[in-house]
Amino acid sequence: DSNQIVNLPASFGQLDALRFIFMNGNELERIPDEICQFKNLEELQLENNKLSHVPKNIGQLSQLNILLLAGNYLNDLPSSISLLQSLTSLSLSDNNLMEVPKGIIQLVNLKQLRLNGNAIRQLPRSLGLLNQLQELQVQENQLTNLPVSIGLLSQLQSLNANFNQLSEIPT
Fold first, then answer.
1. Residues with Cβ within 8 Å of residue 154, at least 6 apart in sequence
2. 20-22 and 43-45 beta bridge pairing
3. Closest CA to 116 of 166, 150, 164
4. For 39, how many CA atoms within 13 A lie in the half-sphere containing its CB?
5. Long-range contacts for 138-144 (Cβ within 8 Å, ≥24 apart)?
6. How far is CA 171 from CA 75, 96, 149, 164, in A?
7. What is the per-residue pLDDT across 53-107, written as a single tens digit (0 to 9) for each?
8. Phi and psi (nearest 5°) for 89?
9. How far apart are CA 7 and CA 143, in angstroms?
């Protein structure tokens, strides 16, 4: 953590036995495509870098449980994110998201979803499909309402929707 690494060398792709990558607080501008071939990767932490996109083949990380991308410059995720069916924790806080990336709703094993500190105006109506969700952080966005389907999140233990433009809670 907290180095000044701008790029990962191509040879990094040869470390395909890696299970955990922690590269928070660097100057990374891109995630090498080779990382998406790490079949054993369980946790990928790339918070507080300078990432503006995620590789299209991120969905190949079938064992990935934790993906932390907070504090970057992301405005979307590739549709292949929906293939990360082992994912239980996803952090996209403090990016440039104006909407919830579509593939997230298909991550049915998510327990923790952090979307705070973006410019999201609306949560998808299908949010209730994430029936394993225990923590939802959507504070500091531009939400004017919460979807009625939020009531279907029977496992939800923590909802933070502070600092939005909400005027009511759905019944």
1. 131
2. parallel
3. 164
4. 0
5. 138/164, 139/163, 139/164, 140/116, 140/164, 141/115, 141/116, 141/117
6. 31, 30, 10, 18
7. 999 999 999 999 999 999 999 999 999 999 999 999 999 999 999 999 999 999 9
8. -135, 125
9. 35
What are the residues facing 45 on neighbouring strands?
Answer: 22, 68
d(CA 73, CA 57): 19
CA atoms in the 13 A half-sphere facing the CB of 93: 17
Q: Which tokens go with 148?
A: 């009625």
Determine the Cα angle at 104 with ends 41 and 75, to 5°: 90
SS3 state at 82: helix
Global model pTM greater than 0.85: yes
Residue 162 Cα distances to 130, 139, 155, angstroms = 21, 5, 20
